[in-house]
Automatic annotation (TrEMBL):
Biological processes, Gene Ontology terms: proteolysis
Keyword Nuclease: no
One example GO MF annotation: dipeptidyl-peptidase activity
Domain of life of the organism encoding this protein: Eukaryota
Entry's transmembrane regions: none
Similarity section: Belongs to the peptidase S28 family.
Organism expressing this protein natively: Vigna angularis var. angularis
Keywords: Glycoprotein, Hydrolase, Protease, Signal
The name this protein goes by in its record: Lysosomal Pro-X carboxypeptidase
């Protein structure tokens, strides 16, 4: 009876999450890859099996790192994988590349994120990928349903606990491999990039440096403009095709106009081949909003989804109306299908459910549409409504000020100029989330590496022969900086070793 009740509660949470997200507020998801790729069966199949070079381990992780209540001592198994292939070994003090998993299972990171693997040979580095708690196979309380069941079990699901997990795992690895002198460079993309930069600030005794790719650490508490994200999405489309931009801008009112006709929603459902009949025109508009932002955020040069969408929209101008043009853009991006699921981007995957909790608790990024410089209809972020809906869904109030309180953010250059060191903030300026990123050098060792044409987390994706020269240069710059860190570390290691020997009393 208890398991049936828990299953019902879990299903209810799914349904509430969908309704709250779609109808009350919308914070675009982070992540190192496109949302549509998450559900590509071939990619999921390929990424589920690590290559023979990776060995899977589980660390007995403490549930709560910050309290001494009895339940704090509960544990769960946290997954991490290691690639020993290129490591020079502990005796040579060869470095460790540690990639921090984010709001998704570890499998996809190993598959998509090739930067550690591509550069490990020249560093003779050990490669480690660590899964984020509450995702993949790193689930407390025995099951995902139980872990997300109520406010008490979800209370251990936050970024501070996550980076404390990473600290524990990395210290365990160094101890197990007798690699005390092997410097660690932590890496992450998107939310994982934020974790990497915060880890360097909170645990400088563990991480020599951090590579934070597409980390919007300034998109909190009003530091970055709310409309910044959608401004860049609009800019990407406008720079690709002025006529495409104009068509999309006009389409929202046209969709509403058709919807108001007798059987208007049926007409729209038929024209867009929706899998289920539309109940509101908003369902279609929300789908298109997600589609455009997904294309702009992950506008990889090898695929150019923004160009693909705009080419299809523009090509259809002479043979159909605005609604028809927009549908041609959908087909070009999503592919030919028997029908199109308007809930495609809101399905209750574990990533979706987990990230909804994280944004409703501490990762509150106020992102909205504004009338000016946007191809989207006005929809400003409403914090009061956001707080109400999150409270209704989870029974706790969001903490929109906590990230800047715990990690900082205001006066970043002034504060970090002397306090922080050895962090790379990399961004592509076509990435909508770059509006909340660090785009200027803070000091001689807290550096911003940007590219005009780059998109979200592009620099940490696997290297290919077709990579444009500007991307090759960006990665080389990041590698050069990391080599400088390690060279300085090795010099310090030798110098302090000599001092230690000189200070040791001679026998006899």
């Amino acid at each position: 009876m208890g398991s049936i009740l828990q299953s019902f509660q879990w299903l209810l949470l799914f349904m509430l999450t969908i309704s709250v997200n779609v109808y009350a507020f919308k914070i675009p998801r982070l992540g190192t890859w496109r949302r549509s790729k998450e559900r590509d069966p071939q990619i999921i199949s390929s990424s589920s099996n690590f290559s023979d070079d990776f060995k899977t381990f589980y660390y007995t992780q403490r549930l709560d790192h910050f309290n001494y209540r009895p339940d704090s001592y509960h544990t769960f198994q946290q997954r991490y994988v290691i690639n020993f292939k290129y490591w020079g070994g502990a005796k040579s003090s060869a470095p460790i590349f540690a990639f921090f998993g984010a709001e998704a299972p570890l499998d996809d990171d190993v598959y998509f994120v090739g930067f550690p693997r591509d550069n490990a040979p020249q560093f003779r580095a050990l490669i480690v990928y660590i899964e984020h708690r509450y995702y993949g196979k790193s689930i407390p309380f025995g099951s995902r349903e139980e872990a997300m069941r109520n406010a008490s079990t979800r209370g251990y699901f936050n970024s501070a606990q996550a980076i404390a997990d990473y600290a524990a795992v990395l210290l365990h690895i160094k101890k197990t491999l007798s690699a005390q002198n092997s410097p660690i460079i932590v890496m992450g993309g998107s939310y994982g990039g934020m974790l990497a930069s915060w880890f360097r600030l909170k645990y400088p005794h563990i991480a020599l440096g951090a590579l934070a790719s597409s980390a919007p650490i300034l998109y909190f508490n009003g530091i970055a403009p709310q409309a910044g994200y959608y401004y860049i999405v609009t800019k990407d489309f406008k720079e690709t095709s002025e006529t495409c931009y104009q068509t999309i801008s006009k389409s929202w009112s046209e969709i509403d106009r058709v919807a108001k006709k007798p059987n208007g929603l049926s007409i729209l459902s038929k024209r867009f081949k929706t899998c289920k009949k539309l109940n509101k025109s908003f369902e279609l508009k929300d789908y298109l909003d997600s589609l455009y932002t997904d294309a702009a955020q992950y506008d990889f040069p090898s695929e150019n989804p923004v160009k693909v969408i705009c080419s299809a929209i523009d090509a259809a101008a002479k043979k159909t109306d605005i609604v028809g043009q927009i549908f041609e853009g959908v087909v070009a991006f999503m592919g030919h299908r028997s029908c199109y699921d308007m809930n495609e981007f809101n399905r209750p995957t574990e990533t979706y459910i987990g990230w909804r909790w994280q944004t409703c608790s501490e990762m509150v990024m106020p992102i909205g549409h504004e009338r000016n410089d946007s191809m989207f209809p006005p929809a400003p972020f409403n914090m009061k409504k956001f707080v109400h809906e999150c409270s209704s869904l989870y029974g706790v109030l969001p903490r929109p000020h906590w990230v800047t309180t715990y990690y900082g953010g205001y006066d970043l250059k002034l504060i970090l100029h002397r306090f922080a060191s050895n962090i790379i903030f990399s961004n592509g300026l076509r990435d909508p989330y770059s509006s909340g990123g660090v785009l200027e050098n803070i000091s001689n060792s807290v550096l911003a590496v940007t590219t005009v044409n780059g998109c979200h987390c592009l620099d940490i994706q696997s290297r290919t022969a077709k990579d444009p020269e500007w991307l090759v240069r960006q990665r080389k710059e990041e590698v050069k900086i990391m080599k400088g860190w390690i060279t300085e570390y090795e010099a310090d290691l030798i110098a302090f070793s000599k001092q230690s020997k000189a200070a040791t009393p001679k026998k006899g």
